[in-house]
Structure to design on (229 residues):
């Protein structure tokens, strides 16, 4: 157990639907990062939050949004889902703003859009 | 901003041989370089890291070297075993985080160790 908790582990939904992925960072970590990993692909950075505020944004689609709550858990919302959104979605956390001590990844949410 | 290139994209070795994965980075101010191992369907896990004030670091069969002048760093795995088969990602942390967050990842190397 890495200390980063992601739920649900698996999600199957239809095109056009909306889903919410949840992440609880490791205790004490203030930064949360979201990544998308499609089959045999690398880690595509989506967005970072630090202590409740958005800090960095990658190539995140407009259909996707995220937030970090006062208790530091984060949610990634995916709407108007398309087949191409099927992927593993990872959340990671770090204790500092710069990530100079590496990230700890959660086990991921496998999203399948049918 | 920072850019990290990783080679090779795939690597196949015989059990017991050594494996080397190389990464280059572009931002000379980058100061932290972790390596992650990702087994199929699982989360990336930190296996070793190195900071810019150190040239080499070892942990059992794994070592990482850093050449700041050439802006490249490498992962060395000796006496490879089938359980070393995985995708390995290098990363660099620029001094100032940018549009990709604070760790810039390479595209990964798929290592296969044949018994």
């Amino acid at each position: 157990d890495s200390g980063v908790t992601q739920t649900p582990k698996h999600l199957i939904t239809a095109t056009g639907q909306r889903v919410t992925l949840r992440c609880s960072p490791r205790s004490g970590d203030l930064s949360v990062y979201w990544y998308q990993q499609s089959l045999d692909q690398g880690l595509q950075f989506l967005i970072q939050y630090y202590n409740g505020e958005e800090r960095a944004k990658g190539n995140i689609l407009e259909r996707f949004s995220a937030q970090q709550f006062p208790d530091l858990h984060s949610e990634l919302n995916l709407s108007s889902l398309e087949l191409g959104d099927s992927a593993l979605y990872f959340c990671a956390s770090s204790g500092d703003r710069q990530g100079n001590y590496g990230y700890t990844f959660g086990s991921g949410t496998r999203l399948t859009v049918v | 901003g920072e850019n990290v290139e990783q080679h090779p994209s795939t690597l196949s070795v015989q059990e017991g041989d050594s494996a080397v994965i190389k990464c280059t980075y572009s931002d000379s101010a980058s100061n932290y370089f972790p390596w992650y191992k990702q087994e199929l369907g699982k989360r990336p896990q930190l296996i070793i890291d190195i900071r810019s004030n150190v040239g080499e670091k070892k942990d059992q069969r794994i070592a990482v070297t850093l050449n700041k002048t050439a802006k490249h760093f490498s992962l060395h795995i000796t006496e490879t075993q089938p359980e070393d088969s995985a995708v390995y990602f290098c990363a660099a942390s620029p001094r100032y985080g940018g549009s990709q967050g604070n760790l810039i990842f390479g595209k990964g190397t798929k290592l296969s160790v044949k018994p």
About this structure: Chain B is about 0% helix and 55% strand. The CA atoms of residues 57 and 64 of chain B lie 5 Å apart. The radius of gyration of chain B is 14 Å.
